[in-house]
Amino acid sequence: MKSFEKPLYDLSLRTFSKLVDISKGTHPKLEKLVEGRKNLFEKLESFRLDFKSPLAWFHVASLGEFEQAKPVIGEFKKRFPEYGIVVSFFSPSGFDHVSKRPQVDIDFITYLPFDTPRNAKRFLEVLNPQLAFFVKYDLWANHILEARDKNIPLFLFSASMRDEQIYFKSYGGFFRKILFSFDHIFCQNEKTRNLMEGVGYHETTITGDTRYDRVNTIAGHPKSFPEFETHFGNKPTIVAGSVWDEDMQLIVPMINSEQYHWIIAPHDINDGQISTWQQQIQKTTLKYSELPSEKEVDVIFIDNIGMLSSLYQFAKIAYVGGAFGKGLHNILEPLAYEIPVVYGALKNPQKFPEASVSESYGCSFQVNDFPELQKTLQSLSDYKAYLQSQEGARKLMEENLGSSKKIMDKVMSILDNK
After folding, report:
1. How much is the pTM?
2. Which of 65, 226, 249, 400 has its CA 20 to 30 A from that of 149?
């Protein structure tokens, strides 16, 4: 390891935490990043004082990674019911969403402190977990190295790596040390395993993406929304989930030109933005908060959170937003209902391997603009083409389930040999 790498990393984290603290009044997300971590250790100490059982620690970046963690947490609790579960978040959006709702199998939810050596040492001394799991690629060096020094078994699952990441660069020796701290890394795909082996790390297993297990569970037991049955019944409906304005620039003319009914869930709930979209739409629209209503309606805007994953049960086709902006949202949720999914053209396909995989099964479709969206929906109006897409989604789900069980089988084998 080059001598300057870790000191430079530590300096950058200390600088980052100070800059965020100084800048917190300039942006609400920065505010939450700092304010949410206030009294973090005191809250953790209070929890640990009362909770004496052994603990497993799961760290996630935000909500998406939490959804990947949930099926593994459930499988872990089946095998180790005596263990408590602590989940740490880096992102305020994930923490805020999850901490406000009861969570099955989870005993404590916390922010991860900023990744300085002092914070990592104190966090792990107070938490004292018996083993730790990280999800996907949110890897914080000091917390991982401290856990390794304390001989805490470390696992990374649903790992999805790209060759441009620093772990795989010639100058990334310190960061490769992070990878080598894990007892085992469970990869989503062959490419990730090849990248790991290319830098000399061989303790890998391809187990896929645990989100398949999660979305399959949700689709099997969706929430009931009789109000949608009242308005749409068996009418052909498109559910547009996590959409941004860039997505609506395609969707609005589609609504105005076709006979589909629409359920639209914006990524950010903003009444002003929803009103602007309603004014652009030439058909009857309502907000979900305005239901029940006696009038006929063509488009319903969802103006609350927590519903989307169950709304796809009403869809003949799904449109998933984000690809034109910060990144594609969860396309596996609608695919679990065995329906075709459409989304914008990806700027960085490597970040979303589920897109290319589902495209290869013939159940997901990228579009660049309104004419392509129109053409894609027209092609799916063909009965045979639609059935083929449905079959592709069914086959995709069937062939990718069971990741959580495979992970826990291997974890138990490793623990038994320690």
Report:
1. 0.88
2. 65
